[in-house]
Design a protein that fits this description.
2 domains; 3-stranded antiparallel β-sheet; 10 helices; alpha+beta; Arc Repressor Mutant, subunit A
Length: about 230
């Protein structure tokens, strides 16, 4: 991932393109977030290989995030807030609510409550797994899926890194193994995650062997999220 320092306007442009999620013109971005990608930030993003541009109808510039751009936009979620200026400040409010709108759609789709996302560890990723009779299987599966993804983000140094199932199970020890295994297999089939065997199986500690999940006759010890 590019670690080129970016100006505030360039960071705003990066976040705006990620929120739109597809090729966008300046006019479209301005209508949504009240900002335009000016020449200087556009060229900085292009030089860092974070965006690519092309000419569209009526000579409009069309912007699109590259793979590195998506990775940098993901990193922005954990970045410190920038210093606000008279020129750059107002757009941040609309970008914030754009991000919250995306979060709302995801929470609705995954049937997540506020405590699953914003709660303390005691009420979110570390909450006790207590299936209730009024929660159907799909809802229970969605809750476990969201916890798997949250724990992965907590354990993985960088997106795409491998995380051991032993560490994942340690963070989700309250979830019955049969329930967790069922969800992990379904997520692997759906390409939400990828389960892999450890290439150095002879050196595996007992806890890694115990935590493995068997798929197709092969033990899998590692997990990554497919993004």
């Amino acid at each position: 991932m590019s670690d080129t320092p970016l100006s505030t306007p360039a960071r705003q442009a990066l976040i705006a393109l990620a929120l739109v999620g597809e090729k966008s013109t300046n006019s479209e971005i301005h209508d949504l977030f009240g900002l335009r990608i000016a020449k200087a930030p556009r060229e900085a993003l292009e030089m860092a290989d974070l965006i690519r541009t092309e000419k569209g109808p009526n000579r409009a510039t069309i912007h699109e995030l590259t793979k590195q751009g998506w990775e940098r936009a993901r990193a922005e979620l954990a970045a410190m807030a920038p210093k606000f200026t008279a020129n750059a400040g107002p757009a941040w409010g609309r970008l914030l609510y754009g991000a919250l709108n995306v979060l709302d759609r995801l929470m609705t789709e995954k049937k997540l409550e506020m405590a699953h996302v914003f709660g303390t560890p005691a009420t979110s990723t570390a909450q006790s797994w207590e299936p209730e009779a009024h929660i159907d299987m799909d809802d229970q599966t969605a809750i476990v899926e969201s916890r798997v993804l949250a724990v992965y983000d907590e354990l993985a140094p960088r997106p795409g890194d491998l995380v051991s199932l032993a560490r994942l199970r340690g963070k989700m020890a309250d979830v019955p193994r049969a329930d967790l295994d069922r969800v992990l297999k379904a997520m692997d089939r759906g390409r939400i995650i990828q389960l892999d065997p450890d290439p150095n199986r002879k050196a595996l500690p007992p806890e890694a062997i115990e935590a493995a999940i068997n798929i197709g006759g092969e033990d899998k010890h590692l997990l990554t999220v497919v993004r």
